[in-house]
Amino acid sequence: MNNKRIHDAIHNHIGEGRVFSKEEENELLTKIENNQTLRPKRRWFPELLGWGLAGAAILLVLGIIGSQTGILPFSADRQPERLDTSLLKESVSESTGPDGLSDEQREEIESRQPKLYNADSVEDALNALPFQLTLPENLPFEAEFILEGINDWHFESNSDGKDISVDFRATNGVEVIFVEAFDFDKEFIGQGNQSLEQVELKKGVSGELNIGEDGGTMKFENKEGINISIYISNSEKYNTGNVLIDLADQMIE
Fold first, then answer.
1. What is the pTM of this model?
2. pLDDT at 38 over 60
3. Which of 65, 88, 115, 177 is the most exposed place for a label (fewest CB within 10 A)?
4. Measured at the alpha carbon of residue 219, what is the angle toward residues 215 and 222, in degrees to the nearest 5?
5. The pLDDT of residue 9
6. How many angstroms separate the CA atoms of 18 and 11, rounded?
7. What CA–CA distance (Å, rounded) separates 1 from 7?
8. Cβ neighbours of residue 230 under 8 Å, at least 6 residues apart?
9. Whole-angstrom distance, CA of residue 228 vs CA of residue 206
């Protein structure tokens, strides 16, 4: 190897343009002549950084696609765009209507009935809903909520995969609480002689309190537009109205 090639190798390849002292040049020249040239250090950090940015970009694209299609949630806390039936079990409805109906009449009646689903757990039921719902945790008696059922009101006009209602129940065998939530307009049927009172709930949400002989009901619409109804049976151990207000406040995020 001639002096010029050795000099270029030292200053451009190994040293990458760095100026060496005479002692360093002599040491490197000896290593080159003995075929013991040190391999240049790899720049791992820029390469790792590049791969990391590429991976993050791929995950971002997948997240956006999933959020638009409903296949993948963009974040762990986001509810599905439509009812997630993969977490549920469809209940087979029994024959509807009185005896003597024709097949056409029976099909017409059945077409107006919602699809009923159940779940293995309350958590699965809540995660399957196309809207966020928080159940109250502090109840006036010892009990836990169970799922009564999820209804998919699959009428022909339902083109958005919503129109979902869900019912939960908590009871200790004597006292009972029912919670119903739905994402569409629904008319309530009054129960007996009830007194109506407008109340203000947490975060400025307006509620409608009905106290009757057998119990009380609180109805309100949360900030996300979900209609919620809470029923509780009367008890001498607590004030029905105050308990309903507290239960409603627990459901408002």
1. 0.65
2. no
3. 65
4. 145
5. 55
6. 6
7. 10
8. 177, 178, 179, 217, 218, 219, 244, 247, 248, 251
9. 12
Distances (CA, A) of 207 to 204, 221, 248: 9, 8, 9
Distance separating alpha carbons of residues 152 and 167, to the nearest angstrom: 12
Residue type, 196: L
| Coil, strand or helix at 211 | strand
Q: Which residue has the tokens 């065998």?
A: 173
Measure the CA–CA gap between 155 and 115, rounded to whole angstroms: 10
Residues 6+ apart with CB under 8 A from 50: none
CA distance 248 to 134: 10
Instruction: Please give the biggest Cα pair distance in the chain.
Output: 110
Q: Rounded CA gap, 241 and 210, in Å?
A: 8
CA distance 241 to 207: 12
Contact 190, 202 (CB under 8 A): no
Number of C-beta neighbours around residue 101 at 10 A: 14
**pLDDT tens profile 161-205:** 678 999 999 999 999 999 999 998 766 444 444 568 999 999 999
Which of the 8 DSSP states describes residue 76?
A: T
* Residues near 141 by beta carbon (within 8 Å), at least 6 away in sequence: 172, 175, 235, 237
Q: Looking at the predicted structure, is the pLDDT value of residue 218 above 80?
A: yes
- Cα angle 158-163-165, degrees, rounded to a multiple of 5: 150
pLDDT of residue 252: 96
CB 253, CB 132: distance < 8 Å: yes
Residue with tokens 């509810």: 79
pLDDT tens track for 97-121 = 667 788 887 777 777 778 899 999 9
